[in-house]
Amino acid sequence: MALGGQEIVIEGGAAHGRRWTHAGSTTFHAANAIAYRPDGTLAVTDGSVRHDCADWAHDLMDRGATGRLVLLDPRTGDAREAARGLEYAFGACASGAETFVSESWRHRVIAIGPDGKRRTVLGRLPVYPSRLFAAAGGGFWLTAFAARTQLVEFVLRENAFQPSRMIKDIAPEHWIAPRLRSGESYLEPMQGAHLRTMGVLKPWAPPRSYGLVIRLSPEGVPQYSLHSRVDGVNHGIVAAAEVAGALYLLAKGPGRLLRLPLADIDKDIAA
């Protein structure tokens, strides 16, 4: 498990008590996902070496590219960097000899080989991908903690807009940036058609927060997706796992653990 994003600790088993605070000369700063690999190593994504896990929006506004994939060996205690310079690494899952990694700020999933070679598995996503989890019967579940919007893209693209001034003068919850939850304050920035009419937030409005999980094939091809729309509350989906015939989702926005029976999902997809 990861403690505060800064320390990896093993509980139970032959390697009980083994811990890591750094890989190479760089300490863990925003360790946010751990995945077991067939060779017995652990794949860990360290989102940023500059910002803590809670300050992910700061990393986005700073156009951060300091994320990395680290491989830990519980048997020997070895820790080595398999890839660095990632634009916020946020999720890993083994796929044969490769490791699939979510690169949030580049809106893509990449595969990193044992030699460090990278290839794009799924690119140009309309969302910010987060954690990856193996699905029963093959394939993966990919969660997305927020959707991309034109206004945020404008802020990040136009250097003259100076996001640094926004960071300095405005409270983080009111930045023009993705959020895990929204609609709680009139001070929130308007984004496109994200408006209320007669007290109702229109479901077609471009969202400031969103809930999404995507079912991927073993090759990383999207099969279908599950949504909590802009007028929903189960936003900020950051984790998913299959247990006993159900899909469990962690909606960090409202602080909820969701349970969706897979039989119901399969029935709806078939219809």
Architecture blueprint of SSEs:
Elements: E1 2-3, E2 7-9, E3 19-20, E4 22-23, E5 26-27, E6 31-36, E7 42-46, H1 56-61, E8 67-72, E9 79-86, E10 89-95, E11 98-103, E12 108-112, E13 118-122, E14 127-134, E15 140-147, H2 150-157, H3 163-169, E16 196-197, E17 200-201, E18 211-216, E19 222-228, E20 237-243, E21 246-251, E22 256-261, H4 262-270
Antiparallel strand pairs: 1-2, 2-3, 4-5, 6-7, 7-8, 8-9, 10-11, 11-12, 12-13, 14-15, 15-18, 16-17, 18-19, 20-21, 21-22
The count of helical stretches stands at 4
Low-confidence stretches: none
Helix content estimate: 10-25%
Radius of gyration: 19 Å
Series of secondary-structure elements, N-terminal to C-terminal: EEEEEEEHEEEEEEEEHHEEEEEEEH
Query: How far apart lie the N and C ends?
Result: 40 Å
Identify the quaternary structure here: single chain
Would you tell me the overall average pLDDT?
90
For this entry, give a set of tags:
11% helix, single chain, 271 residues, four-stranded antiparallel β-sheet, mainly beta, 22 strands
Short description:
Helix content is 11%, strand content 41%. It is built from 4 helices and 22 strands. It has a 4-stranded antiparallel sheet with strand order 6-7-8-9, with no helix packed on it.
Q: Would you kindly provide a written description of the structure presented here, covering whatever features stand out?
A:
It is a single chain. The protein is mainly beta. A hairpin with a 2-residue loop joins strand 4 and strand 5. Helix content is 11%, strand content 41%.
